[in-house]
Design goal:
Structural class: mainly alpha
Shape: globular
Number of helices: 7
CATH class of the largest domain: Mainly Alpha
Strand content: under 5%
Helix content: 55-70%
């Protein structure tokens, strides 16, 4: 990263990812601010990272995990956000209610849900997803395929359009 690295320049990507994972604007804002604060606090330690976006999304993933653990302790696992959500950035074969998509994602294990969000909401390539989750490109591709199959089983209306894995 260059000396002029400013994590606030990546706030939009951080927020969009957090919102896609958490489904709540308020929680996404909280997590985004936690990420920016952490990066600003320890900026000198991050100056050698190759790709700021991938690195910041990785930090965001960890902050989301921390946030979810804390939320579950405070509210319990079955508490649902009543805030309306939008999934306009996901291209699906048929129109459906955002709540149906979020319900379908909730049925997936965390890592499968994460790769779907990284791919279809954040637009990362399979190679980038592999780096973010600490797996090879082939392993990430396999996980993404299994995740899509599980998502389709949970809700047959969900079929990502024009998905050509292995070419990203």
């Amino acid at each position: 990263m260059a000396e002029s690295f400013d994590p606030r320049d990546y706030l939009d990507e951080i927020y969009r990812y957090a919102y896609a994972r958490l489904g709540s604007r308020e929680e996404a804002e909280d997590v985004s601010m936690e990420v920016i604060q952490a990066i600003c606090r320890y900026r000198s330690e991050f100056s050698t990272k190759q790709d700021p976006t991938l690195y910041l999304i990785g930090v965001t993933r960890r902050k989301i995990a921390d946030h979810c653990r804390q939320r579950n302790r405070q509210r319990g696992r079955d508490t649902v956000s009543i805030e309306g959500t939008s999934v306009d950035s996901i291209t699906m074969a048929s129109a459906m209610e955002p709540s149906a998509l979020l319900d379908s994602l909730d049925h997936l294990p965390e890592l499968q849900r994460d790769v779907i969000v990284l791919k279809y909401l954040c637009g990362f390539s399979t190679e980038e997803i592999g780096k973010l989750i600490g797996k090879s490109t082939q392993a990430a591709n396999s996980l993404l395929q299994r995740s899509r199959e599980a998502l389709t089983r949970a809700n047959p209306e969900l079929r990502p359009q024009n998905d050509k894995e292995g070419k990203n």
